[in-house]
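Example 3.
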Amino acid sequence: MGELLELTASEAIERIRKRELSDDEYFEAYREAAAGDPLNAYLWLAPENHEQGNREGPLAGAPVAVKDIFCTEGVLTTAGSRILEGYRPPYTATAVRRLSGQGARLLGKTNMDEFAMGSSNENSGYGAVLNPWDPGRVPGGSSGGSAAAVAGQMAPWAIGTDTGGSIRQPAALCGIVGMKPTYGAVSRYGMIAFASSLDQCGPLTRDVTDAALLLSALEGRDPHDSTSVGIEGGIKLSGREDLKGLRFGIPRELAVDAEGIEAGVQEVFDRTVALIEGLGGEVDECELPHSPHGISAYYVLAPAEASANLARYDGVRYGIREPSEDLVGMYERTRAEGFGDEVKRRIMLGTYALSSGFYDAYYGQAQRVRTRIAEDFDAAFERFDFVITPTSPSVAFELGARTDDPLAMYMSDYCTVPMPLAGIPAISIPAGLAEPDGGGPELPVGFQIAGPAFSESGILDAAYALERAIGFDAVPERVSR
Amino acid sequence: MIEKGQVVHVARLARLELSEQELERMARELSGILEHVDKLSELDLEGVEPTLHVVALQNVLRPDEPHASLPPEKALESAPDPAEGAFRVPSPQA
């Protein structure tokens, strides 16, 4: 069974297609692995003989883990929040529907930071997720359950959502591939809203080939989400193994001059840059002058949008209700009881930023910074095909290390926040292992490649060539069988 | 700095009951975050258009065709207190 779980999803699908592997056996192997979940990665696991639809299609036979932020008809969906405890949605998110329509089978729903607000998965209403490389450390967040499940060989691949780094950062901290597509590439219908102008669904996988396959199944225009446009021409992986003729820009602000990048992370980054040059890519420094303001702009925009989106959790239509004699009292108590600390903090921050007299100074100003950040990228992409940075300034940190300092936690997203603000796609691939600052066993380091809007195929091509040169084949000790 | 009085006001706007202890912690934590965020005000962005949406889309239209919507019983399935085909709530005037 161990060997089965080491296959990439694409390899397994190929074997199933050739009838060298039974899809039921493959599904059952994962169900069993996930049932013993030592990392708290799952909130719901498919029962044996769980009814599954289509058995044909490009993903036929592949089990998929789905972040619990996606609505699944009749199947528990909580977004990691106690306020939605026991909620079974009346419909299924388009992203999940697309996967099952192409033959994938729902394996389970994965744990996450409550309403996707967090960078460590410690904000889940159902307990923290542990990192498969070191259970004393966080897997990153907010798609930490998805990342831990894939890295811990409890799912061949998974989907998550990224608003400020929530796919790429946990992928980096768990040593797997994670991609945030261009805003609009994948439908947000049935994806529980956090910050609607930033949220985007994407794949978390073992390798770049799987990421391309999963993304090609996810993307597409959806009449239920008028902001979805799909990716013109779809996703095509050329399989090129060099980077000749491609220009990579290293933004000084997010790499060279950035504060707080760990020495080990920097070393792996520099080594990867040398590999790019070895493959024939041209590398030079560039500038994204407004990107250091990304975190500030993000922590105005995302909470503001969240404060509006989360107004719907009021104890009336779904989820829990705390009784009170009057209506407003019922709202206030239900929300006090159902939301966790970080969600309350962001609702307060967002409500404050949008309140009378502050709107333009905060929300308006943040939207103007957003314009500048996007213009900075536009300028960089006139000279470069891609921009490259470390995905996360640090390797996985210890549980509890940043929970008392919201700002320190927010800085975990320093390198990943500018891309969603500009709406552009970016991938994180594992680039090596490094010791944390202060020493300790080595942990995975992610390397980020961002490109212009709808350049997913180009990013995946470059990542594919680089992945081969890096040759990252480490797996967490606890899952190596 | 954000005062405790402001926190009380914002919590009311957000329909969030906060304990005395939470109010104090919130005032402290929000002040810290806002202090960081306030650096945005130092940027001269006079005349810069705000970004409302990153993909250039206007008037996304679809054919006006009737289709089935969620049946009421299904919409009520998850309700904490469904009654007579509706969502029952405490009186707003109580």
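Residues 359-383 of chain A form the longest helix (25 residues). Residues 40 and 129 of chain A are 5 Å apart (CA to CA).
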